[in-house]
């Protein structure tokens, strides 16, 4: 099952990547005249630069994970056998479903990256009523699932780097932009809704003095 798990993980990874970035960009272009990609890296060493670098590394390692499982390099053994592998498959599919649903709910506001000069409508319904960053939550869950399905050093490292990239992107890039763009509306939203997990990571507003 080891090599087969690698092939399943590889198929899921490539399908997810194609749907989340390729298909979504085509749909966005047809509906809005724009791909939604904002890929300027920013100044070297800036939070935006680090976020994009970490995401690029995570994507490459995410591909390397199932490939190294297939060829037998750096395989890891996780207690639980097929039960854990099954849980991994469920998590990978659940994370992918959450990601794709959240992208669809963003509509014209969907972006990859941030343009500080751009103002998009804030989305707060659907999955965004439960967590503020369901796209990233879905990515993280899917990455953990793929690791459990086909555990290797590369897939473990991919998950760790992805989690770091998400933290940098959300906390140091996107949240400052959203506070600047939407002001009190975003602050109120952040006080009600968790960052990645429901009710966790809410930013409580300071009472007026």
Automatic annotation (TrEMBL):
The keyword Membrane applies. One of its GO terms (biological process) is methylation. The keyword Transmembrane helix applies. GO terms for molecular function: protein C-terminal S-isoprenylcysteine carboxyl O-methyltransferase activity. This is Isoprenylcysteine carboxylmethyltransferase family protein. Its EC number is 2.1.1.100, 2.1.1.334. The chain crosses the membrane at residues 6-29, 49-70, 76-96, 140-166. It comes from Tessaracoccus lacteus. It comes from the Bacteria. Its main location: membrane. Pfam families: PEMT. Keywords: Membrane, Methyltransferase, Transferase, Transmembrane, Transmembrane helix. It is found in: Endomembrane system. It is a multi-pass membrane protein.
